[in-house]
Write a structure and sequence with these properties.
By secondary structure, the protein is mostly helical. The chain has 14 helices and 12 strands. It folds into 2 domains: 160 residues, Glycosyltransferase (Alpha/alpha barrel); 191 residues, Glycosyltransferase. Strand 3 and strand 4 form a beta hairpin.
Amino acid sequence: MSDSVKISVYKKNTASNYLDAAVDVARWLKKQEVNEGGYKHWKISSGDGSQSQDELLRTMNDRSIYSGAAGVGFFFIQLYEATDDRSYLDEAIQAGEYLLNTYDEANIKPGLHGGLAGEGFFAEVLYGKTGDARYHEYAIKAGDVIYDHAKKEGGYIHWNGIPDYMGDGSAAAYWLYLSKITGDKKYIDHAKEFLDYIISLKHDNEDGTVNWNFLDIHNYFPELPEGGILPNFAHGTAGIVYLLTLYYEVAKDERYLELAKSGFAFLEKIAINDGDSSIVPYIYLPHSDKPFDVFYLSFCHGPAGDAIVAKELYKATQDEHYLSFYRRLSNALDEAGVTHKRSAGYWNDCICCGSAGVLLHFVDGIGLTDDEFYKTHALGVADKLLGDAFSNALGTRWYNAWTRVLPWNIDAYTGLFLGSAGVASSLVSLYGALKGKKITQIFEFDSLI
């Protein structure tokens, strides 16, 4: 038997290992650059894998905070904050220049994740780091253009897209953010006009709860059950509860808070409880005694996203009930084995629907509570992420399927919510929490309102 030697599979990671991985992702992102017309952005995916038959993925754009330059630039700001290396801020500036100099008002989407609001949020964060007023002006312009492009009917405003939080709905959150940084109350009025439209679409239940149902997922994926309700953050009732709570925090109008509470009560009503854990179904089937047995776990459709809502209600009300539910959602992630196990609704590594979004939840819990549970689980998920990574001479990245029901469409994506920049972002966030270093968080995990 040979003497023991140090081998990587036995290595215990430290905070510096998480940061080193993020730095190596930045090296890989350099290989994904696209230079057009003197301005730089990044490919949405490396092209190493297969994207056949994924029509939804082909709707991604190279500007957004979800899949494009705004999101990659945001990650570089975080890496600059963690390392004090000016070259990373320069990368973020190049992302900002791409957005400013290729802006086209003919193709406007309003939301934070796939649209102009997300570009504006990134631009304002970049302004905070550079002092370049052009970025601040772009952030304000984004809010104004979004409003100008809205349809104004019967005292309401809306656009052509789905008004859930992940879609057009998050424009209201961006206006509330602008109201805080500018002091201009017109943005509060804009948010109210849109929220009142969303409220007009609510379903009132006999038990006093309310919910929203914006789409039938069966129409997108025929193999899923027909007539189901998507209740979670960010496509369902949970996302609207979040918006209503944000509005209350700014406007102090109790009607919106009461409606938010009624929406949250709907989520609690349909949650599946087991001991000290609660999880809201991915698809709620109101006319079935059996749940659809696929449970998403991350930012979209899962406990990590719903916890954002519980936390915001706790902030707004100081009611311990919401903090308790935040903990119950966290316990559900533990019960699901997120530090070591995959499941049908937890199949990849991205922020949107995978491990990086779960890691951000546990990092958030470190700041919100004094419970060692959150640090332990954050470290466990981070270690799993490092183990899942692929690294070679080009750098570090993660190969994943974005769409759950198309598992053969695997590639290394670049974006913040979609790909490796987002995984690296979550690792930088953990590094900051462990080292006591302030790292700017994505919109939903920062205290912006």
